[in-house]
Specification:
about 200 residues; mainly alpha; Arp2/3 complex 21 kDa subunit ARPC3; about 0% strand
């Protein structure tokens, strides 16, 4: 059963305003993902940089829902493929998608969709549900990312280069996302309470 995600609580009732609202959210979150990609820290032993874009992708799904979350990620990817310097480190173009880290972009779509779906099912309203949603989303973006990287390096090396070094950072990003989403959930719960 679908329930409103956080942004639906402030979505305008008029259809044309609601569509404009959705487009603004999609464009805005594609920018947030792009900004997260610019906070890239290259690691000397792996082609996969440390970025904040994974957190931005998960927040897009949780806050916008599955459809708008995926649309925001798809807009981000389209911007990069069109030549805008939005990928990690200011890169752009099809070469990035076909290179060793291209699988993570596909994972972003899967992660945004599933976290959005879980949020629409009401899972992102409790502290444990938020944590579960973020962990599932984080793992989902790694599956195609590591699988694609394995085509370049082999499976065992792909895990060592594209997954293991990021566990601590992902735990910190998950904690930050949890705190932010928990705050949003508390505000949403207050907004839904009738006035005394």
């Amino acid at each position: 059963m679908q329930s409103p995600v956080s942004v639906d609580l402030v979505r305008p009732a008029r259809p044309w305003l609601a569509r404009l609202f959705d487009l603004a959210l999609i464009a805005g979150f594609s920018l947030v993902i792009a900004l997260g990609a610019q906070a890239a820290i290259p690691l000397p032993f792996t082609p996969v940089p440390v970025t904040l874009q994974t957190l931005a992708v998960l927040l897009a799904g949780c806050l916008l829902g599955s459809t708008r979350g995926v649309a925001a990620v798809a807009a981000y990817i389209a911007e990069g493929l069109a030549g805008l310097p939005v990928f990690a480190g200011g890169s752009a173009g099809m070469g990035h998608l076909l290179g060793p880290t291209g699988g993570y972009l596909v994972g972003f779509l899967a992660a945004a969709y599933v976290t959005g779906l879980l949020a629409e099912r009401g899972l992102a309203r409790t502290w444990w549900g938020i944590l579960l949603t973020l962990v599932v989303g984080d793992l989902l973006l790694y599956v195609p990312g590591v699988a694609w990287l394995a085509a370049f390096t082999g499976a065992q090396k792909a895990l060592a280069l594209g997954f293991v070094p990021f566990l601590l950072g992902d735990a910190l990003k998950t904690a930050a996302g949890w705190g932010l989403l928990k705050g949003v959930a508390l505000l949403a719960a207050r907004r839904q309470q009738p006035p005394a």
